[in-house]
Amino acid sequence: MIIISKNWADFILSRKKDLYVIRPIETKDAKSLLSLVIKSSGGLSSLQPRLNFLKDYIKASEKSFSQKNYSDQPYKYLLGLYDGIGGKLIGCAAVKTKTGINTPFINFDIIGEGDNQHLKASSRFKGSTEVGSLYLDPDYRSLGLGSYLARVRYLLMATEPWRFDDCVIAELRGICGINGSPLYDHIFKDKLEKNFIEADTEYFDRNPKSLGDIVPIGKLNTCDMPINVRASLGQPNASGLAAMRLLQSEGFIFTGTVDLFDGGPIMSVHRDTIRTIMNSKLLKANRQDGIKGGTYGLVTSGTLKNFRAIISKTKLIGDNLNISFEAFDFLSLKKNNTVRYWQTNEKNQFEFEQSNHISHKAFEHT
After folding, report:
1. Does residue 254 belong to any structural domain of this protein?
2. Is residue 104 part of a domain?
3. Model confidence over 315-326: pLDDT tens digits?
4. Is the residue at 335 inside a domain?
């Protein structure tokens, strides 16, 4: 256990700015997004470090946010966290609907136990809503921003919940990196004649529809696998431990299904039981010139087509929420407009993250 002094917590929290903003990532942000994701060590399937890939992702997101009439087709909503209004892009997160409808979403189910345990290819989560593409700039991880970035996805869903499937999943990055992945190297490397990074790029970026052509048929007995492969099944990458703990705090549980290539865990929760949504409040927002003695909170406004969010100092007075003039204007609010608000005790959250090795770990999952 790590003991955090009150003075150290105060010092770290004093470094946090009064306002960080979250909005849909736009085409003009493509190069900034590339600069951000290349800081990862690979293995984030939905954030391939290629400019054209990211541009296509952003265009799909822009189309989704601008959609007037809902249809039973996949949508992608990609959000960016910025260091103030007009500031640097420092993080991203996304919500994707109808997973596996247009392109295969194939994983391994872990079935049985002991000598009878085996892996079997599965598409059991086809059609689910997926939260992912979570990545926070390493330089900002000590400020406690990652938990807000993860949670804004749930408040996005709360704006129009009927657009999102009851089953919400999250696919965590498994044991992998530039040196490969135990599961991939054992099953696929010799067959495909590609290393892990090359295959991840090929089948999850350039040619995802061919994924079904390489999936093993039948049972794969785990007792025949090397111990390092068995040990990797369902284990998150060290860089995703923070994300996993946050998912668990929201009610997500491990499903017994793992990623096809890296063996990372797939977790799920029922949409309406996500704790951030359940604990958020609808309040009337008011402008205040300077928030003295306030606490940081996550505030969102609008529907999907005009969604905005802030991480900012706030002051709660009854059913009214006071925020700064700058935050009020960014959210495009008028007097007594309703906002959705989520807030936790900032020092308790900081100490929780530090004692669980969260703040200095990467906030990232696929």
Report:
1. yes
2. yes
3. 999 999 999 999
4. no
Confidence (pTM): 0.88
Is residue 284 classed as helix, strand or coil in its secondary structure?
Answer: strand
Give domain status of residue 278, yes or no: no
Would you state the torsion angle of the CA atoms of residues 151, 39, 356, 238, taken in this order, to the nearest 10 degrees? 110
* Tally of domains within the chain: 1
Question: How confident is the prediction for the chain on average, in pLDDT?
Answer: 88
Per the structure block, which two tokens stand in for 118? 């085996």
3-state SS class at 145: helix
Give the domain range for residue 246.
18-272
Taking the C-alpha atoms of residue 299 and residue 297, their distance in angstroms, rounded to an integer, is 6
CATH number at residue 245: 3.40.630.30
Q: Return the SS3 of 89.
A: strand
Alpha-helical regions (H) of 17-144: 30-37, 51-66
Structure confidence by residue, pLDDT tens digits, 50-99: 899 999 999 999 999 998 877 789 999 999 999 999 999 999 999 999 99
* Amino acid in position 332: S
Residues 6+ apart with CB under 8 A from 238: 361
